Amino acid sequence: MSAEEPLFRVVRGVPTAEELAALVGAVVARSRPAAVAAPVAASTWARSGRPAGTGPATGAGAWRTSGLPR
Predict the structure, then answer these.
(1) Residue 51 near residue 70, CB atoms below 8 Å
(2) SS in 3 state form for the chain?
(3) I need a surface site. Which of 10, 19, 24, 52 has the fewest CB within 10 A?
């Protein structure tokens, strides 16, 4: 492909400069690979509200002890 050859061409209609800019923006955004977000660790503030080492109660009577203060 030469430098003068357009990447795409309008076949029908007369788009405005804004419409062409929106089309180019959409094509560029679509052609880039999606960024994979890294998992976010819980902040110190969020961890402070969780009791350390206490998970949900299991076993006989667990439903009753789940409502009791720890």
Answers:
(1) yes
(2) CCCCCCCCCCCCCCCCHHHHHHHHHHHHHHHCCCCCCCCCCCCHHHHHCCCCCCCCCCCCCHHHHCCCCC
(3) 52
Q: 33-59: per-residue pLDDT in tens?
A: 877 777 777 777 777 666 665 666 677
**pTM of the full structure:** 0.40
Q: Which residues of 28-62 are buried (b: 16+ CB within 10 A; e: fewer)?
A: eeeeeeeeeeeeeeeeeeeeeeeeeeeeeeeeeee
